[in-house]
Amino acid sequence: MKQGVVATRKRKYSLLALLCLLFLVMTSLARGQDEGMIEEVGLGRIDWGNGLIYVVGYGAPPKGVSGPQARLMARGAAKADAYRNAAEVLNGVRVNSETYVRNYVMQSDEIRVVVEGFVQGARIINVNQLLDGTIELTIELPLGGQAGLTSLLNRPEIAERISPSSPAFYEYPATGVSAPYTGVIIDARNLGIKPALYPQVFDYEGNLLYAATMVNMARPGFTTIVAYARSVDLARNLPRLGTNPLVLTADSAVPAEGERTDLVLGVEATRQFRRLNPEVIKNGAVAFVID
């Protein structure tokens, strides 16, 4: 009898321990999601850390149609809805501190056609049928990479509209004196910085240290100009930064009429930034930590 009671208690304690473990895991996952660099725009999410855009579309089957045909027609409607939603999400993507993608789409029919073609090339990553027969469809669009939005807007007919007006300036280190860092993390928390496709970094005298014009977007494996993270520890885990990233703290944000996207480094941070291996800059091995 006593053995049975002991066994029952052990099972209860084991179950309690398992529940506690599950709670801790779920809490950890939730915290990780909160720290992720996700920006909600309309019916889409921009993952600035991994350089991806996710958009959802919905489609209902037509009345009087059932079976496989109804599902097929609902899927087509969901796909069309996702494309429409994606166009709205892309319009809300920041290009720099002053403009969004929508500003360029409104200025040029050519750019509008290019962006529409980009949406048509989206990858379907999930299709789910709800209880009422409605299809929920999720598409994925790359911010970076050879086929991504960053490279797309770098095309000659578009680039001149979004290239920085300031002269490019970068003091490459002399042979043999560059610091042995594989990337750079710039801590910009508490500065009100927002993620963008083409952020810039300036020194304390206003010279341009980092911009899209300095990055080799044609190289294999290119992602985005800058990756974003919620903490330095999360930034360190980004593959693009290698095993030994330099960590700097931004001095201030560049004042802007719109939202702030660009950073200013102080004297010591500028000195360290300029000693980076040129490959760090060319490869875009740069991350901003923002709130």
UniProtKB/TrEMBL annotation:
Signal peptide boundaries: 1-30
High-level lineage: Bacteria, Bacillati, Bacillota, Capillibacterium
Entry keyword Lipoprotein: yes
Record flagged with keyword Signal: yes
Keywords assigned by UniProt, alphabetized: Lipoprotein, Signal
Protein name (database record): LPP20 family lipoprotein
